[in-house]
Amino acid sequence: MTELEVRLRAVRERHRAFVPYQMAGASPRWLDHLDALVAAGADALEIGLPFSDPMMDGPVIQEAALRALAAGTTLETAAHALAGRDLGVPLIAMTYYNVLYHLGLERAATVLGDAGIGGTIVPDLPLEELEPWREASAAAGLATVLLVAPATPPERAARVARASQGFVYATARMAVTGRSDDAGVAPRVVAAIRAAVDTPVYVGIGISTPADAAAAVAVADGAIVGSALVAQVLGDDDPAGLESVAAAFRAAVN
């Protein structure tokens, strides 16, 4: 069992998890934003590493990635900044395989591990091609978090869930991040995962309001909130404002 899973299982013993997302480098104050999210009650942090063609991300996170890239943010610069920051909660990096492959899998994993990252989410890396990154990650102490989508057949959902480390990411919608114009199908996706494993299950994609977060944790162990919090930063990068918005999600998860 990875260290990330040990820590997240301990969270599950206490309460449902609130896992906010921010894009590294989207604002010059992005590290202060992480502190604000922890102050608001985050149990873990998902940190985006920017990529020019993010297939899973909606317009808000795409804009954040463009701002981060324009500021010169890379996996290495983000990791270097994080290495000097004790945030006190587990950190999970979310990026795309091109970013890892370009740097080199072993180097990317080592840099992330040295920065205090506990796991990664790589949504464009399929189960059948996972092993090289998983081996590099294991050597660096990183968990490899996998996603189960509403369209994933039950047999494959079970295989993905069993291969996922740290937690299993249940996507509530067949959509990019930020979309919440339907009720989603989180209960069905979570049930498919729970039939296969006892690993913590977190719901993401379209958790746009505190009510969405409350609905997610009615069936899952935690809620991942991205676009709603990133939009706050894009409009006003005052950490106090972000903390206030995040606190409303924390209260709903409670």
Please give the structural blueprint.
Layout: H1 3-14, E1 17-23, H2 30-39, E2 45-48, H3 59-70, H4 75-83, E3 91-94, H5 97-103, H6 105-114, E4 119-121, H7 131-139, E5 143-148, H8 154-163, E6 168-171, H9 186-194, E7 201-204, H10 210-217, E8 222-225, H11 227-235, H12 239-253
Report on the structure:
The structure is a single chain. The longest helix is centred in the C-terminal third of the chain and has 15 residues, at 239-253. The radius of gyration is 16 Å and the shape is globular. By secondary structure, the protein is α/β, with parallel strands linked by helices. Helix 2 (30-39) runs parallel beside helix 12 (239-253), helix 6 (105-114) runs parallel beside helix 7 (131-139) and helix 10 runs parallel beside helix 12 (239-253). It has helices at 3-14, 30-39, 59-70, 75-83, 97-103, 105-114, 131-139, 154-163, 186-194, 210-217, 227-235, 239-253; strands at 17-23, 45-48, 91-94, 119-121, 143-148, 168-171, 201-204, 222-225.
- CATH topology description: TIM Barrel
Spans where pLDDT lies below 50 across 5 or more residues? none
Biggest pleated sheet: 8 strands, parallel, barrel
From the 3D coordinates, which CATH architecture would you assign? Alpha-Beta Barrel
Shape: globular
**Roughly what is the average pLDDT, rounded to an integer?**
94
At the first level of CATH, the class is: Alpha Beta
Total individual domains: 1
Write down how many β-strands occur, each being a DSSP E stretch of 2 or more residues: 8
Q: How many DSSP H or I helices? A: 12
Assigned CATH superfamily: Aldolase class I
H/E series: HEHEHHEHHEHEHEHEHEHH
**N→C terminal distance:** 27 Å
